[in-house]
Design brief:
Blueprint (H helix, E strand, L loop, with lengths): L1 E2 L3 E4 L9 E4 L10 E5 L5 E6 L2 E7 L47 H9 L32 E5 L7 E4 L9 E9 L6 E8 L2 E10 L3 E6 L2 E6 L8 E8 L4 E6 L2 E2 L3 E2 L11 E4 L18 E9 L5 H9 L14 E4 L3 E4 L2
Antiparallel strand pairs: 1-2, 2-3, 4-5, 5-6, 7-19, 7-21, 8-18, 8-20, 9-14, 9-19, 10-11, 10-18, 11-12, 12-13, 14-15, 15-16, 15-17
């Protein structure tokens, strides 16, 4: 049971005995990841919030939890399967519920947080459930305002999938993002693939001063100012009517190119951050992966003007296809979500 802003009580086989009380760091108005572990052999109860351990006390040592259970989200059961109290109910959102029949280690907790370890008793991706009352099932929508994705190491597995709703083929596209890396080899911050076209819209950077943009398999390259070890803002726009491709880095427009005039990008797309797709949704190569930090990813279904890009940089214009503040996404592999510096 959670008592805002920073207190938890954990009950194990509660029969008139006290609970385990935890004091945690106060949390901002945002999603939080909570794990509780209990070991009957020692009775130890531990609480983890957003990957941070808060050691607890001892509860129910030597006991066990019966096999016949009633498992409820959003209400406290004062009897088996019922006797709810509205003042103890959850109002908000719940996701990624997992249960194991063993005690997770600190390494396990990190895997759970990154999405690489799923419950062996209750697995959120394949559980059976029944909804009672006014509860809605909605796409996961984690708020990323003031957050960054951190890709800590070279790998062929770590990536972030973005899931916007695209209902028609795109004849104009703009993508903007901020990135921070010390890589000296080529890397991919943004990849959009469609069935049959793995490079439908790809941004591929080759330090110190080359950017390749692929539109429907055709590549165009730009020579830019040499990168500095700092955050930089990149925008790429494409207009099928003219074929014009624009690259703007930190608001500076480089000489424009022309690519795939008259074509369109299919509505069915796979959008990935941090890896280049050599097939639809996969085919990753660690040597093309991104290592560093990515934030403020936005996408539009029209070509931004240089003046628009200035508004994007200042935070005054947000994407109408992908809005980083409200995008539906899925983390795969070792990618962390951290506060923006």
């Amino acid at each position: 049971m959670f008592y805002p802003p920073n207190a938890y009580n954990v009950y194990v086989n509660y029969i008139g005995q006290g609970s385990n009380a935890f004091k945690t760091d106060s949390e901002p108005l945002d999603w939080r990841h909570t794990c509780v572990t209990w070991d009957s052999d020692t009775g130890l109860v531990h609480l983890w919030v957003n990957g941070k351990l808060y050691p607890g006390g001892v509860s129910g040592k030597g006991s066990s939890i019966e096999a016949s259970i009633s498992l409820i989200l959003g209400q406290e059961q004062d009897s088996y399967g019922g006797r709810f109290d509205a003042t103890q109910s959850l109002v908000g959102e719940i996701s990624d519920v997992h249960i194991w029949d063993y005690v997770l280690t600190p390494e396990d907790i990190q895997k759970v947080t990154s999405g690489d370890l799923h419950g062996n008793i209750l697995n959120w991706k394949s559980l059976l459930y029944e909804i009672k009352g006014e509860v809605f099932v909605q796409p996961k929508n984690l708020h990323l305002e003031s957050k960054v994705f951190v890709f800590p190491k070279e790998t062929s597995t770590a990536h972030v999938i973005l899931r916007p709703e695209i209902t028609r083929p795109l004849q104009e596209v703009s993508v903007c993002l901020r990135s921070y890396t010390d890589l000296s080899r080529p890397y991919t911050p943004f990849s959009l693939a469609t069935p049959g076209k793995d490079n439908a819209f790809l941004i591929y950077l080759q330090p110190p001063n080359t950017c390749f943009v692929h539109i429907n398999q055709e590549d165009t390259y730009f020579k830019t100012d040499s990168e500095s070890l700092d955050w930089r803002h990149i925008c790429v726009t494409w207009d099928s009517n003219t074929g014009v491709v624009q690259l703007l880095v930190n608001g500076k427009l480089y000489p424009r190119r022309v690519s795939m005039k008259g074509s369109s990008i299919a509505a069915e797309g796979s959008i990935v951050l941090g890896q280049e797709q050599d097939s639809f949704g996969g085919g990753f190569d660690a040597k093309q992966s991104f290592v560093g930090e990515i934030s403020d990813v936005h996408m539009w279904d029209y070509a931004l003007s240089p003046r628009d890009v200035q508004k994007v940089i200042s935070g005054g214009l947000l994407g109408n296809v992908i809005n980083f503040k409200s995008v539906v996404y899925e983390v795969k592999g070792e990618v962390l979500i951290q506060p923006k510096p």
